[in-house]
TrEMBL record:
Name of the protein: 2Fe-2S iron-sulfur cluster binding domain-containing protein
Superkingdom per UniProt: Bacteria
Any one Pfam family match given in the protein's UniProt record, by short name: Fer2_2
The 2Fe-2S ferredoxin-type domain, residue ranges: 1-76
Gene Ontology molecular function, alphabetical: 2 iron, 2 sulfur cluster binding; metal ion binding; oxidoreductase activity, acting on the aldehyde or oxo group of donors
Keywords tagged on the record: 2Fe-2S, Iron, Iron-sulfur, Metal-binding, Oxidoreductase
């Protein structure tokens, strides 16, 4: 038995200990916005937020998330149906083509912007004692785990730079 919240709704489910969080979301809860890309944690298409932190749902067992708050792409829109600022920026800057990776890219961007705002360093942060700057290289490094086969990176990059510099709440 596992109890957790997904997109603000509480669930008490019987979960096979071998079931990944991705499969639970897609197959049991019918939240199909999170995509199964490589199923090996290499592409980022399955990125979701758990307790506000981004994770690869294909690499995480559902049973490990007892009591957690899970947010998928479906849960990012506001209650009144308006787009999350990251979703709107992706649309404004053509940050997608086929759309397969888009849900993972957007969830990853939300988590990444939170990490940046909190001052968490990345692999390339030069001064670990200073707050990281929202420069292009920093944002690219932080999003490097999310791949786009269509190469919509230019639009994604412009959207992320705008969001980071305007300090849009993620």
């Amino acid at each position: 038995m596992a109890a957790f919240s997904v997109n603000g709704e509480h669930y008490d489910l019987t979960v096979d200990t071998r079931t990944t969080l991705l499969d639970l979301l897609r197959e049991q809860l019918i939240l199909t916005g999170t995509h199964k890309g490589c199923d090996h944690g290499q592409c980022g298409a399955c990125t979701i937020l758990v307790n506000g932190q981004r994770i690869l749902s294909c690499l995480s067992l559902a049973a490990m998330h007892e009591g957690d708050s899970i947010t998928t792409i479906e849960g990012l829109s506001a209650a009144n149906g308006t787009l999350h600022p990251v979703q709107a920026a992706f649309i404004d800057h053509d940050g997608f083509q086929c759309g397969y990776c888009t849900s993972g890219q957007i969830c990853s961007a939300v988590g990444m912007l939170r990490e940046l705002a909190a001052g968490n360093p990345s692999y390339i942060t030069a001064d670990l004692s200073a707050h990281p700057e929202a420069v292009t290289e920093e944002l690219h490094e932080r999003m490097s785990g999310n791949l786009c086969r269509c190469s919509a990176y230019v639009g994604i990059s412009v959207a992320l730079i705008e969001l980071a510099r305007t300090k849009v709440p993620a």
